[in-house]
């Protein structure tokens, strides 16, 4: 089990030790905005994370209670990673990063999502969070029906 050695008890330090590299934010991006939740889907992202790094980062997210891992209802040899409520609480943070990045990199970003955020950020965040909770619940129910 991967644990993080904390340098201090500072809340910012705690956050940086979990999210302080690009891979964590990209995995969260894929979970929240791109509908990805399997190892192979994460590996297929444009940034080309290595299997070893992805395994390490997913284990940290699991150990921190930000994601949970279930067996795929469609394929018992495949695992799915789903955001927990703790992970879903990060949506406003990720929306701010997405919004900031799109402001200074106008060539990138999901146009429909960005339009919704610009129109009504609070509503967009709530809709994303509700969708993630609903998808998680649906997959957990399907998994329970399978086994």
UniProtKB/TrEMBL annotation:
The keyword DNA-binding applies. SUPFAM superfamilies: Winged helix' DNA-binding domain. Residues 10-109 form the HTH hxlR-type domain. PROSITE patterns: HTH_HXLR. Keywords: DNA-binding, Transcription, Transcription regulation. The keyword Transcription applies. It comes from the Bacteria. This is Helix-turn-helix transcriptional regulator. It comes from Mucilaginibacter roseus.
